[in-house]
Amino acid sequence: MNVAHTLEALKALGVLRARGISNFRKPLELLRTIKESRTLGPAAGLIRHSARVRPHAPGIVDEAGTLTYLELDQQSTAIARGLLTAGITPGMVIGVLARDHRGLILSMAAAGKLGVRMALMNTGFAPAQFAEVCEREKVKAVLHDSEFLGLLHALPADLPRFLTWLDEGTELPLGARTLADLVAANSAEPLPTPNAPGGFVILTSGTTGLPKGAQRNKISPLSTAQMVDRIPFPQGGTQVIVSPLFHSTGLAAWLVGAALANKVVVRRRFDAEATLKMVADNRADMLVAVPTMLHRMVELDPAIRAKYDTSSLKVILLAGSALSPELTIRATEMFGPVLYNLYGSTECAVAAVAEPEDLALTPGTVGRPPITCEVRLYDDNDRRIRAINTTARIFVRSGAPFEGYTDGRHKPIIDGYMSSGDVGHFDEHGLLMIDGRDDDMIVSGGENVFPQEVENLLLRRPDIFDVAVIGVDDAEFGKRLRAFVVPKPGCTPDGEEIKAYVKSNLARYKVPRDVILLGDLPRNATGKLLRRALVDYDVRS
User: Fold this and answer.
1) Are the C-beta atoms of residues 235 and 157 closer than 8 Å to each other?
2) I want to staple 308 with a disulfide (CB 3.0 to 4.6 A). Which of 132, 276, 352, 465 is the partner?
3) Under CATH, domain 1-23+219-437 is a member of which superfamily?
4) Any idea where the domains of the chain sit in the sequence?
5) pLDDT single digits (tens) 82-93
């Protein structure tokens, strides 16, 4: 690490202190928390910290009620003991397939206390995909919600399994065990500290194939500084998190909330009106969501939105997929200047954050890198690009890089900067704009087209609710553009008129040759568009 990077790291410690993450007035508690987070993992370590400083503060609120930080600590210890009795020992890998609720939080904390590695599984898996990931990650036990019982048929019958959430009316298999059973049957006396941290595996979005596993054995304090540097998290306040906790942003936001002893309110399935109600009922300071979810809230009938007082919100943190300029403007009009747009990835951690003033200057921007992060642009010949408004590949230097995929592969690196897999440009304000995925670029008639530019234009139309543009094979041009349009309720957009609209605003080669109307677009849990599903879509059906 050079002198500049060392100074940056020291400044990051100042950020942690200013944001309330590190309390140097209580050095013994600070040192204890650091030690526990390193050995037990961040979930267990931070829960134990808040259980000591604010034991009776609400830690998690879900559809089953409230658990305090003390209850989270005690119950996760009992679960860890139960897993140990069942033959789950330090160094093993366990998978958790759960929606956002206490069972997921307790599972992560229990895994840390036991010293086992936890693989956070995607709730959108198909059975074969789930089985393949479990085999690749060498999963020795599965913790899962009852709604996913069908996925487990593809796994070996003798693989231990435990239920994290039980839906009403579910008929359980003979001998099934729940987390509640483990809590009831085991002591909450602390376990011996594991010899090595178990760590965890976060799966990539899997928009282009089987999700890869990005492993992390520990969370660096620098990664926490990146989260809080430009985002004002509440301290002892309330966060509503509707981003999935099994993915990077939701997990990171929860970990920061646990460090600050915040009340975190979650729900198993996203519902736009229910989210506004959660914010209003809990007088939430912060909402963590993906842009698709924000879009659903903005599109609610004004009479429905008016039922809920969301004026307590100081931060709406967005990440996971592209935030369009149109959505930026409309959401700011509705909620006020409280939007924060985070850009990063499972591999690169945080790369940039846009604050409200950045989004006012350039709607849709991802802003600037936070402390300990740097972003550079490189062309296809690995030459650095410094010119403004010039699209090139995005590379990130982070104080908290990932440790490589679980299959042994790694991301391309240039001069110590890791590829994000995206392309973008810096505007005249020095703000970073994402133009699309590197592999989403369409070459049509020798011209390069990034779908996001066309999509952002079409989203400005009052008759379009959602849109995706892809490239399909064409004998004359190599590829031609096809637009999939989801109309707003009560509207029937005309394909020819849509083409004329694009032609009047963008270059000729960016005009879609085909316009297909759909009821909805295929997206994953973090709102990312599954373009492969559209490439394979049979337009004759």
Assistant:
1) no
2) 276
3) ANL, N-terminal domain (3.40.50.12780)
4) 1-23+219-437, 41-217, 441-535
5) 999 999 999 999
